[in-house]
Amino acid sequence: MPLDRRPTRREEGPEDAPSPTPRRTPRYSDRENAAEPRRRARARANKNARPGEAKQPSWLSRTINHWWDRLISAVFSGSVAAQSEQYLPHRTTRDYVCNTIGQACWGGLFPLLTIVCTQFVGAEQAGLFSMAMVVGTLLLFLGNYGVRTYQVSDLDEMQSFYDYQINRVITCVVMLAVGLLYCRIRGYAADMTHIVMAVLVFRATDALGDVYEGRLQQKDKLYLAGLSQAVRCALGFVAFTVALFLTRNLVVSSYAMAIGGIASAVLLTIPLAIFETDRSFPWSLRGVRELFVQCFPLFAALFLYNLIDSVPKFAMEGALSYDNQLYYNAMYFPAHAILMTAAIIYKPQLVRLASIWADPEKHKRFDLLIIAMIAVIAAITVVMALVMGWVGIPVMSFLYGIDFEQFRPLVYVMVATGGVCAVIDFLYQIITVLREQQAVTRLYLIAFAFSVPVAMLLINFSQLAGAVLSSLVTMAVLAVLLVSEYAVIRRRAERRL
């Protein structure tokens, strides 16, 4: 064979043959890079399209079509759990952006629903729906059972994902049963019972979706969890608003919201978590029982905290008209925004905080991070107070069609309450990361015992103003108790070193 000619493939020996490269599962980034030329071509085609010609589908349409094709093919092939992952982990920017969107949608759902109610059916009916949402949100913490923080910090997967799913189904069933029992004990009329139960069904889909979104966060795909949460809230809001606009009936609208929540869980949240995470280890009775035992202090603390937060609302239900529920909750929403903003900042860092605490040499750094976060919460609270004093109160008056200028001093008190609540929630999460959650329950019981007589006394004395003030006093006492408990835990940890 001449030296200046390269051997053909047939002339190459076995030792010269190129080794076959293993096939790699397509990733989301591969699909995005490959789609870039097509995206540019579509943009040029849309720009040059003649009037009357059909344009290329939008990004949202393509995303929905792609997801629908993937879901249908997985169902008909019978291999839902065997689907290849298409979205990459470790996307910090996306985690923050999408988690912020999801948290904002979740936090904004309640106030938006009350605004819609006020505009369509009036303040009294909006206050009645607000009370149903208060009951639903309180029992949501029974459905969640305080597992989310424990789940995402379970880095070694001591419990399988099946254990978490079975735990969540049980708690959701108990949540609905307790809600029905409460309606019977409270003696609600048929319409109010239907509204409460429909809200509870929607909140049950919230609780069920939370365990799947926790799985995505555990696998460092928090951005997918945030998008799932946002879609669920958006579907629920749209369904409720359209139904209320057409029927002016809160019962029908509440059930429409529940159907929207169920649809989002079945069509997006559950399959997304199955597609985009590893196959779970088998479940075990011991693992499920261990979750109930280990997370009971978490559940008790969270449930008691939200019960303490709701004591003024329950006390008002028996003493004041339902429109006061609307006024109280409308003033509380800016305070809740402080809590949600703080959570958006620190919750994506819980896994990182757990790893920092695991290294004894970084405990001082851990303390500095806590102090820094509390300072951030204080800054957020000050900014919120300034915003509410400048444009917040006029905007609230416009949205609700109610003059909130008369409540200006109460709005400032409620904003301060929001800052204290954000500190309480942050310290609770930190104590959970330290696996010292059993110490918190006692503190919440003390605060609850304190809150009931304070709320009843102040509401009977000052009505709506008394409810707002009782909330601030109770939360301040609880915050002091938690700070003291954290100091005790830190001293005990130092002595063990």
Task: Describe it.
The protein has 497 residues and is mainly α. It folds into two domains: 89-283, no CATH class; 297-497, no CATH class. Helix content is 79%, strand content 0%. It has 16 helices and no strands. The chain has helices at residues 28-48, 59-77, 92-121, 123-144, 147-152, 161-186, 190-218, 222-247, 250-275, 285-319, 323-346, 350-358, 363-400, 408-433, 438-462, 464-496. The radius of gyration is 26 Å and the shape is globular. The N and C termini lie far apart (76 Å). Residues 1-25 have low confidence and may be disordered.
Essential attributes:
497 residues; mainly alpha; 2 domains; disordered N terminus
Task: Describe what is shown at a glance.
The protein is mainly alpha-helical and 497 residues long.
Total of DSSP H or I helical runs spanning 4+ residues: 16
**N-C termini distance:** 76 Å
- Overall geometric form: globular
Helical percent range?
over 70%
Rg, alpha carbons: 26 Å
What is the SS-derived class?
Answer: mainly alpha
In sequence order, what are the helices and strands, one letter per element?
HHHHHHHHHHHHHHHH
How much β-strand is present in the residues?
A: under 5%
Number of strands: 0
Number of folding domains? 2
Q: Based on the structure, what is the oligomeric state of the protein chains?
A: single chain
* Poorly predicted spans: 1-25
Which helices and strands occur, and which strands form pairs?
Layout: H1 28-48, H2 59-77, H3 92-121, H4 123-144, H5 147-152, H6 161-186, H7 190-218, H8 222-247, H9 250-275, H10 285-319, H11 323-346, H12 350-358, H13 363-400, H14 408-433, H15 438-462, H16 464-496
